[in-house]
Each structure stands twice: as C-alpha cells, then as structure tokens.
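Subject: Sanity check before I submit

Could someone independently write out the structure tokens for this chain? I want to compare against mine line by line before I put it in a report. The sequence has 165 residues.
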Amino acid sequence: MSIDVNNESGTEVDERAILDIARYALARMRIHPLSELSVIVVDSGAMEQLHIQWMDLPGPTDVMSFPMDELRPPSKDGDEPPQGLLGDIVLCPEVAARQGAEAPTRHTMDEELQLLTVHGVLHLLGYDHEEPDEKAEMFGLQAAIVDGWRAEKGMTGPSPAPTVS
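---
Independent answer below. Compare away.
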C-alpha cells in the first residue's frame, strides 16, 4: 500500500499514526495492497478555501475526501480486491483539536485525526452519511475500524466517538 502523508499545517501531528490507521482501514476493507492514497494535513485557512471551492460552504471543516478511481470494497470474500488510485484525504488539525475537546468522550487532536482518517477512507470507498441508514452503516464501520486498530496497538480506554458532520 502506498500512502503518503504530507503535513502542510504547521501543527505537529502524529503522522505515523495517520499512516498506520489508514493502512489498517484499507486492509480491513480489503483494498488491493498496491493501491495508492494521499493524506494532506492543512491549516484552517487552506481547509476553508477547499470547503468553499468544493462544497460551497463557509468556514473550515474537519476532513474532505477527493476520490480518484472510485474504488469499492469487494462484495464477497472471494472477489478480487480493487487496485488503483484511491484519492486524497485532507485533514485539518485545528478543527480536529476543537472537535476532540468538545466531544462527549473528550479526546486528543491526534485521536480525532485518526478517526477522521478512517472517515475519509470510507468516503473514498463510496460510503456516505446523508441518509440515516447510510450514516448508521458508515459510522458503525468507522467505529469498528478505529476500535480494531486501537486494540491491535494495545490502546486502552474508550475510542473517540464520531464527531464528524
């Protein structure tokens, strides 16, 4: 799996954890190991510009996903995993820090960025949360991936509750 993490935000973030949880999420979703993903960490000004340009919404957001080859997880265990360019995930640590602090299960900026990375991966794979049933499926899968990764890493305590909008 080729995953690039590029921190352009000026904020120190745990890039290794972002890389690791992205790799875990893609493996869990059975995406081909030769697929490619880019994760870019930006400041709130850059995120606000992207949010306005692509979503026509004001202010910075927490995560944005820009799919390339529109890969989807295989529907059955025996199916061949898809391979290609997944696309880009853009994260904003300033928004992540605020969301983590305001979450019912208060957590760190890095924990929120890990959650947002999984959220972005799922968007790249075609998941959405516009409708209640889609939201239940996506957020359930997101929690299972984050919990599985945290368990594999020997992390204790509750995993971050979904705070993405």
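---
OP: Matches mine. For the report I'm noting this point. Residues 132-152 form the longest helix (21 residues).
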